[in-house]
Design goal:
single chain, 45 residues, mainly alpha
């Protein structure tokens, strides 16, 4: 029983970490685009 609980907790931690990584990369990309736009060079594509 304890192993099952540990497995579920581990899976949740991995899922949370991957979601956080996606959010961080998306935020960095948005900041990059905003920075380029403020410099007068918006990214295309």
């Amino acid at each position: 029983m304890a192993l099952i609980i540990l497995g579920i907790v581990g899976a949740l931690i991995i899922a949370a970490a991957s979601v956080a990584g996606l959010l961080i990369s998306a935020e960095a990309e948005m900041r990059e685009r905003v920075g380029d736009a403020s410099e007068g060079q918006p990214k295309l594509g």
